[in-house]
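To illustrate the input format used throughout this study, we show a single complete record. The first block contains the structure-token representation of the backbone; no residue identities are included at this stage. The design step must infer an amino acid for every position from geometry alone.
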């Protein structure tokens, strides 16, 4: 790996970390590209090549991942959770959640049980990318 590629990967990691820290806030490509010190177009293309998904999809998945936790662990309403994780519309939240997880937020909550396992195992098992991909591969 060349030094230039390594530096670009580090800048992409910084941008991804910025998304992870501020997932509930409005984020735009311009500010994320500035974190990575690249143009907006180059940022989107490089982020996808580096992490396998666009920055927007990564942000959606992070928000859904947090929503999954809140749905399992709290009694807060779905609307409250939707707004807390950064979605502005309940319809968009429900559609995105269903696309990623394979269940509606209501069905996920009804089905969800608290898992007695170390947090690292629970988080790995419950990651939305794995859960949604498995559901789509099984034709669900």
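Output of the design step:
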């Amino acid at each position: 790996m060349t030094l230039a590629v390594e530096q670009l990967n580090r800048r992409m990691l910084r941008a991804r970390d910025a998304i992870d820290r501020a997932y509930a806030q409005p984020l735009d490509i311009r500010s994320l590209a500035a974190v990575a010190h690249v143009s907006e177009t180059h940022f989107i293309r490089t982020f996808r090549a580096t992490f396998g998904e666009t920055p927007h999809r990564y942000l959606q998945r992070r928000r859904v991942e947090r929503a999954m936790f809140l749905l399992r662990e709290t009694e807060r309403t779905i609307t409250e959770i939707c707004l807390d994780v950064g979605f502005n519309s309940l319809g968009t939240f429900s559609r995105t959640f269903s696309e990623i997880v394979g269940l509606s937020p209501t069905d996920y909550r009804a089905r969800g049980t608290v898992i007695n396992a170390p947090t690292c195992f629970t988080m790995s098992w419950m990651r939305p990318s794995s859960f949604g991909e498995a559901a789509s591969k099984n034709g669900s």
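Structural context for interpreting the output: The longest helix spans residues 3-21. Residues 130-140 have pLDDT under 50 and may be disordered.
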